[in-house]
């Protein structure tokens, strides 16, 4: 399995310049309580490779997974790769790192 760790600054740049699609794989209730601005919800518990592929193709930006602490995003990478999707990047620090750094969040 190929996993590429991205740091907060890389994610911030990608969101700011519109090149990155941040896919939050936390549960809906976690996402609703607070998420990184610009991220989209796709819970790991209801992972749907076809829906994910359609989302990515329709969006056109570089897909990057995120979660609470960087664990579920690795599981999402594994699920995507097992489904034949060539996805390998995730925000290693995830929401906890973003929040701890005082970055803005949306609820």
TrEMBL record:
<dbReference type="GO" id="GO:0004792">
    <property type="term" value="F:thiosulfate-cyanide sulfurtransferase activity"/>
</dbReference>
<dbReference type="InterPro" id="IPR036873">
    <property type="entry name" value="Rhodanese-like_dom_sf"/>
</dbReference>
<protein>
    <submittedName>
        <fullName>Rhodanese</fullName>
    </submittedName>
</protein>
<feature type="domain" description="Rhodanese">
    <location>
        <begin position="16"/>
        <end position="107"/>
    </location>
</feature>
<dbReference type="InterPro" id="IPR001763">
    <property type="entry name" value="Rhodanese-like_dom"/>
</dbReference>
<dbReference type="Pfam" id="PF00581">
    <property type="entry name" value="Rhodanese"/>
</dbReference>
């Amino acid at each position: 399995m190929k996993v590429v760790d991205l740091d907060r600054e890389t994610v911030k740049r990608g969101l700011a310049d519109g090149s990155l699609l941040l896919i939050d794989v936390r549960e809906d209730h976690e996402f609703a309580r607070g998420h990184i601005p610009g991220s989209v919800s796709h819970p790991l518990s209801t992972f749907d490779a076809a829906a994910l592929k359609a989302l990515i193709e329709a969006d056109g930006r570089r897909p990057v997974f995120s979660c609470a602490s960087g664990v579920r995003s690795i599981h999402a990478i594994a699920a995507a790769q097992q489904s034949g999707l060539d996805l390998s990047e995730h925000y290693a620090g995830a929401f906890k790192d973003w929040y701890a750094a005082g970055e803005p969040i949306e609820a």
